[in-house]
């Protein structure tokens, strides 16, 4: 356990928790919360067959997480102490607003604050106003000026290309990275064809070169404490080939983003964004996810999400050395600092066990276009026997007791180890045991690691803190 971890008995936290969602991220949350001594029951809506197998878990498959009235009714009927929101769609639907109106503490932002994710244009505006360093770009509600900026960025000396971002929620697949203007033009015309009449429909930005990383912080209006950094892999196939997906794997720690500098990043990214949101009358309570590009000149904010990442959460929660429930409960009540003090935590970072974690996502045949469902999954018992943890995203238990595929991303297989290489070996071994017809996976998650202390065209020098603390839009 790292310095700063709790050495006293676990403090009291929420006893009855409701988790909204039913994917691998929510499975990981239930898995983590159910292991805390203070937790009596973890209700889940809708949950899944696999989540229902977790100790202390109780699923309500007929309650939609998007149905605010049904969620409030369930939370009040079961005397829930805390509701934890998983998917971004639930936040955008205003379920947290309904819970707040009913007096039920919820870890997750209101619909207005969740616009930091549901609108790329809103995110840019908030970040620029907060002085957070972001890529050069602009939001557009008309096609012609968007095309004009795309051409300007593509033709600029030394240009690496253009990034086209759909303004709304796109399940992690609304970004097109364009090497040239022709590709950007095509992406913009497709988005313009489906755009509504009001408001921005797209954000156009310069393409930055570097490597990406994620830094997720627990927040309560103004304060923030970060989980360890993580890195996910979006492309479907090895060597970052193929279409974008919701994420095909993740690992933590991140060698080229030392945790010693993450506290600084929280101070120059998360805290200013929280202050800006509060000043606009939309205070943020929940998990604020900063997607970063680590460039040779320092980190640049790419986007914000308003919830725990997926598949990052699956790799992060097994590394935590402190109970999560009291911190989520404190943040939901606007007292994250008090919850941290009760756990004897200091600073901006949550302590870890010292283990590394690698999560490998196993996807259905024909994902991400039209994932096939109903294929029988074999090898789950063997994977668990290897010591790995398997979180279910898109599965259902059939009448014969066997699990079958029921979604695009089907499983997240998580291995732990004393190093990333060891964790990767454990995850790969467990993933090798699992099979179904047409299963897709990557074999290179965490296989090539940028090294801390070095510098290349794709990664910053992590010891040059001046570059990491430079504020303002680039």
Average pLDDT score: 91
**Spatial strand sequence of the major β-sheet:** 3-2-1-4-5
Number of strands: 22
**Helix/strand structural class:** alpha+beta
End-to-end span in angstroms? 38 Å
CATH topology-level name of the largest domain = D-amino Acid Aminotransferase, Chain A, domain 1
Count the DSSP helices. Answer: 16
Low-confidence stretches: 1-9, 452-464
Please give the largest β-sheet.
5 strands, parallel
Number of domains: 4
Strand content: 15-25%
CATH architecture heading of the largest domain: 2-Layer Sandwich
User: What would CATH call the homologous superfamily of the largest domain?
Assistant: ATP-grasp fold, B domain
Q: What is the rounded Rg?
A: 21 Å
**Helical amount:** 25-40%
Shape designation: globular
> What's the CATH class label of the largest domain?
Alpha Beta
Describe this structure in words.
This protein is of the alpha+beta class. The protein folds into 4 domains: 16-110, Rossmann fold, CATH 3.40.50.20; 136-206, ATP-grasp fold, A domain (Dna Ligase, domain 1), CATH 3.30.1490.20; 211-354 and 460-468, ATP-grasp fold, B domain (D-amino Acid Aminotransferase, Chain A, domain 1, 2-Layer Sandwich), CATH 3.30.470.20; 356-432, Phosphoribosylglycinamide synthetase, C-terminal domain (Glycinamide Ribonucleotide Synthetase, Chain A, domain 4). It has 16 helices and 22 strands. The protein has helices spanning 24-34, 49-52, 68-77, 88-92, 95-101, 115-118, 120-130, 143-155, 181-193, 259-279, 312-316, 325-332, 336-342, 380-385, 420-432, 465-468; strands at residues 16-21, 41-46, 57-59, 82-85, 106-107, 137-140, 162-166, 175-178, 202-206, 211-220, 223-226, 231-232, 235-237, 241-244, 249-252, 285-295, 298-305, 356-363, 389-392, 395-397, 403-405, 409-417. It has a 5-stranded parallel beta sheet. A 5-stranded antiparallel beta sheet has the order 12-15-18-22-19. Helix 3 crosses helix 5 (95-101), helix 7 crosses helix 10 (259-279) and helix 8 runs antiparallel to helix 9 (181-193). Residues 1-9 and 452-464 have low confidence and may be disordered.
């Amino acid at each position: 356990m790292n310095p700063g971890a709790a050495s006293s008995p676990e403090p009291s936290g929420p006893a009855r928790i409701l988790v909204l969602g039913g994917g691998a991220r929510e499975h990981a949350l239930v898995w983590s919360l159910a292991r805390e001594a203070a937790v009596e029951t973890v209700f889940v809506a809708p949950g899944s067959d696999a989540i229902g197998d977790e100790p202390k878990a109780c699923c309500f498959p007929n309650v939609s997480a998007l149905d605010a009235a049904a969620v409030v009714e369930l939370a009040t009927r079961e005397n829930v102490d805390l509701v934890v929101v998983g998917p971004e769609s639930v936040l955008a639907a205003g379920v947290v607003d309904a819970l707040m109106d009913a007096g039920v503490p919820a870890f997750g932002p209101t619909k207005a604050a969740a616009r930091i994710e549901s609108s790329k244009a809103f995110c840019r505006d908030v970040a620029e106003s907060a002085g957070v360093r972001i890529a050069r770009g602009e939001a557009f509600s008309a096609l012609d000026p968007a095309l004009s900026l795309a051409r300007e960025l593509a033709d600029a000396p030394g240009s690496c290309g253009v990034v086209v971002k759909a303004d709304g929620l796109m399940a992690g697949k609304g970004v097109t990275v364009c090497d040239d203007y022709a590709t950007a033009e095509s992406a913009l015309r497709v988005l313009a064809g489906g755009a509504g009449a009001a408001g921005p429909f797209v954000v156009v930005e310069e393409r930055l070169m570097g490597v990406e990383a994620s830094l997720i912080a627990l927040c309560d209006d103004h304060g923030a404490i970060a989980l360890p950094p993580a890195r996910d892999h979006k492309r479907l196939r090895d060597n970052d080939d193929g279409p974008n997906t919701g994420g095909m794997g993740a690992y933590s720690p991140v060698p080229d983003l030392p945790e010693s500098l993450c506290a600084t990043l929280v101070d120059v990214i998360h805290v200013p964004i929280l202050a800006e949101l509060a000043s606009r009358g939309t205070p943020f309570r929940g998990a604020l996810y900063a997607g970063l590009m680590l460039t040779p000149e320092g980190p640049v904010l790419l986007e914000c999400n308003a919830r725990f990442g997926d598949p990052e959460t699956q790799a992060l929660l097994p590394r935590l050395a402190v109970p999560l429930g009291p911190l989520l409960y404190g943040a939901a009540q606007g007292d994250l600092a008090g919850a941290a003090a009760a756990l004897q935590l200091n600073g901006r970072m949550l302590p870890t066990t010292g283990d590394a974690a690698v999560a490998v996502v196993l996807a259905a045949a024909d994902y991400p276009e039209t994932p096939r469902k109903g294929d029988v999954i074999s090898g789950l018992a063997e994977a668990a026997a290897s010591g790995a943890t398997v979180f279910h995203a898109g599965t259902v238990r059939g009448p014969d007791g066997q699990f079958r595929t029921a979604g695009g991303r089907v499983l997240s297989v998580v291995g732990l180890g004393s190093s990333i290489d060891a964790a990767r070996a454990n995850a790969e071994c467990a993933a090798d045991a699992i099979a179904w017809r047409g299963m897709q996976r990557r074999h290179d998650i965490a296989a090539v690691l940028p090294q801390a202390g070095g510098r290349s065209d794709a990664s910053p020098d992590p010891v040059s803190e001046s570059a990491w603390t430079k504020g303002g839009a680039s």
